[in-house]
Amino acid sequence: SVAPGLHSQLAGLETLLLNVSRTVPRDVLIAFSPTEGPSTLNTTEKGKAGKIRLPKEIFRSLSSQIVSVMVTVLNIQQLSMFKEVNQTGQVLDNTVVGITVGNTSISGLQDPVQLTFTHRRLPPGITPQCVFWDPSKGTAGGWHSSGCVTQPGDKKTVCSCDHLTFFTLLLNPALDGSTAQTLMAVATAGCGVAMVFSIFTIAFCIFLRYRFRFEETVHINLGLHANLVGSLFLLNLAFLLNSGLSGRAQLGTCKVLGGLTHYCLLCCFTWTALEGFQLYLLFVKVLGIYIHHYLAKLCLLGWGFPVLVVGVAGVIGSYGEYSIQTKDHQVIARLCWITSKHVLVHYITNCGYFSLIFLFNMAVFGVVTQKSCSLQGTGAVQGGTKPWKVALVAAGLFCLLGATWALAFLTYGTSSAPVLYLFTILNSLQGIFIFIWLVVLYYPKTKETNGSLSHIIRHEKTTTASQD
Fold first, then answer.
1. CB of 278 closer than 8 Å to CB of 220
2. What GO biological process terms does the UniProt entry carry, in alphabetical order (predicted)?
3. Rounded CA gap, 28 and 44, in Å?
4. Choices 4.10.230.10, 3.40.50.10490, 1.20.1070.10, 1.40.20.10: CATH for 177-449
5. Tens of pLDDT along 411-427?
6. What is the pTM of this model?
């Protein structure tokens, strides 16, 4: 249905209404053109128009009925609808195709609806993406790709979607080859530097653990830091092995490399979560904390939990060759990773898992910052604490809790190139940041050093005990 008052705007509207009787369910094939509108497939010149395939699954529950299949082709150039705020991509030929079957909402199809959009050879710098109009996105609606898979071709793109609504092909500018190659070079060099500083940091943590072996809180904190930096070291090593061997690795080897890289990434995320949990215990719970073999149990969780996740992902065959392509579909790198077929595994185990960790750690960071500022304001922390040192400690905590990984959520669309550079550089330097942070925070540790986390924790415990 069309909203009242909108009919006068639909100059480019073409509608095909088919009454389809279904005693035996079968696929329905329809053709559409931006200039000629929809029609039955056999009346359209081959290769000149797009095609729609409606699977028989749609009609199974309607086999004894006559249903209306309506295909609407809209030229949105002169319309005020289907305009997304801050839209970066361009709608192919200003064409939007709407599909409805009967009066019911259809979604969650196992056999997807296929729309084939025909077009000229796309210019360099353009990547097609199948999208549908989501009226709930933002304030005025927007394009969304959930449930749709894009299969780009030379002069046509196939969209496979698990629901019926208004669809189009969005042409998004993408990274060029030189930018992608530069990012790969920066990432490779950064991994090498990060590994060197990770070794320095682990050695420094071992030295400090021996020096302050009688201070239990510092001892546990340094053990956590060493494990986190160790996971970063393994992640960088896995990436270098992956990028160096994946191009010529056999399928079995590639699956192992993909699982290893995924395992190291999950370990890194898990240890950042454990760092946040430790800060939560120290600054929020404060009193009455004693867990037998606490650090050993954290190690079991930090290194053991990712094994379960990777094991499940490996059983369902999630790992294999993954290609990184430029905007003109040129393959610039092949990595052993989660395959495109199992992209849902990536969204759940990486994006979803890190999102939960990030929200928790940022909440803990806010509590730690608030308590530190309140102690500074009441004069509880006095002495020669310099502002730059306080800022550096805060920045180190921010990095320690994995905030630099959150930049990955901003690397989408045409504006993502600068963010990609920032993400790659900051994560490459994460090992250096943690090393400098540890040096400033823990060494030299003298009686006059009142700005450290350990002093704040001790003062907080004393204050809480006096209040009780």
1. yes
2. adenylate cyclase-activating G protein-coupled receptor signaling pathway; cell surface receptor signaling pathway
3. 15
4. 1.20.1070.10
5. 654 446 677 788 888 88
6. 0.63
